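User: Run a structure prediction on this.
Assistant: Running it now.
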Amino acid sequence: MHCAIQNAEALDGAHLMQVLWQDGTKSLFPAVWLRDNCQCPDCYLDSAKARKLLLEALDVNIGIKGLTFDRKKVHITWPNDHYSEFEADWLKKRCFSQEAREKLQRQLFLPECQYWGSKFQLPTLDFEDVLKDDEQAYKWLSSLKKIGIVRLTGASDRRGEILKLGKRIGFLYLTFYGHTWQVQDKIDANNVAYTTGKLSFHTDYPALHHPPGVQFLHCIKQTVTGGDSEIVDGFNVCRKLKEKNPQAFQILSSTFVDFTDIGVDYCDFSVQSKHKIIELDDKGQVVRINFNNATRDTIFDVPVEKVQPFYAALKEFVDLMNCKDFKFTFKMNPGDVITFDNWRLLHGRQSYEAGTEISRHLEGAYADWDVVMSRLRILRQSVQNRN
């Protein structure tokens, strides 16, 4: 960033520091925040990038006793003669102006979202390139964050390939179905995905209070007829629902719905959760969709008069997903791996015929968004340093 300090002074009875930058802009920093974030070895463990200063030891009404500066640093003395210094770049990055805060949040969380519908061009990269090349891996994860889905081609047609993707990002998300799981027709199936029937649009695992953020599906064997994959950009559908029927949007974003999943797989399980189907953040933005019709519980914890309006709202949401303007259909081939945002996309599958032997086999796994974003930030730094 290489910012240069033109002037720095204490204001407001020494409870604020104002910095005038070389470019003519100004930043204000509260004294209590500066003291809390002292970077000296007594207050900060640089090897862990973690604060050592205890909040119990912080005077929340502290003022600046002495202040000097040069172009690159501010030097502060506190009332007990503790000494802190702050680099210009470090301060400028953490400026409290709304513009600076929004810029930093964008850098940290990459909130850009590219909506799409039925005319979607599915982003595609080579599986081995993603495993071996940081620029390709960065392209994979940044596209996954922005668009919600990326197809990787060229994996082998045997089990274990998505374990390699798990290692590439860090680690996979263990659930009651195991580290990985096999999507194929099974006798006495413990999940509707393990049948040959049509799967309607859903997100995976809303029966968990923290559903997995990212899903990997690797095609090992594909049936000749049927079994096509269907996806829809749930955030785009939510945008349309809010525009078309605000009341339905309000019902789905405020009503808690019960989800359940009971059975035996990796171990025995009896899972219960409550989610709003459309989950909003404090700014009213859609951040997650929680919907799986198969695991939506028969228990519904709402007053009786709210039941029918809820069903009407949900039916409108599902009808919109299935509208030709939003739905994208494609067929996975052996060696394809689709990686997608399970909080944003809803996915489904067309039915296919059962045979005497397994005719369709996908291996699946999950990852947590925290793990994916961690790798994305590290890859971004690596790619930027290289360029």
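The mean pLDDT is 96.
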